[in-house]
Amino acid sequence: MNYDEKSQQTLEVVKAMEEALGAKSNNMEKYFHKDFRWMGNQGCGTKNNLQEFRNNWQLPLRAAFTDRVYKTDKFLVDGEWASCFGHIDAIHSGEFMGIKPTNKRVKIHYTDFWEVKDGLIIDNWVNVDFPFILSQLGVDVFNGKGWEAFDRGDIEPPKPN
Predict the structure, then answer these.
(1) Residues 6+ away with beta carbon under 8 Å from 148
(2) N or C, which terminus of the chain has less Cβ within 10 Å?
(3) Distance (Å, whole) CA 137 – CA 100
């Protein structure tokens, strides 16, 4: 298989998996390698197999956020690698990070990097913008000291010595 064919196969695997997630599929085994790992940023955790991904990410996300619509903005592929960025529009209808349901519609920004081996996803590096989600729910994890304060002119940015 040449590079372009491998890239196309990788993209098809990832898009099929994303479509299944969006359709609330409970049968995800056909997309993932037996040695699958899911590595998230702080707050998301690391899942060492598909069952951990399901129990410790997929189901808690479904419990906290309903009426989910997945919107991938852009895919990039490079042989056995694929990446995307996008967001989920959802209703905060269950507890999330200790915050009781607010029934607010929120945007959940994400970036994914997948490695596909033998036509199956073996690794997934993920970054979910938890601070942005929390800000939509009324929690400022930076206590007003986020660098957006520089942009607004609220705080003078420090300068190196």
Answers:
(1) none
(2) C
(3) 10
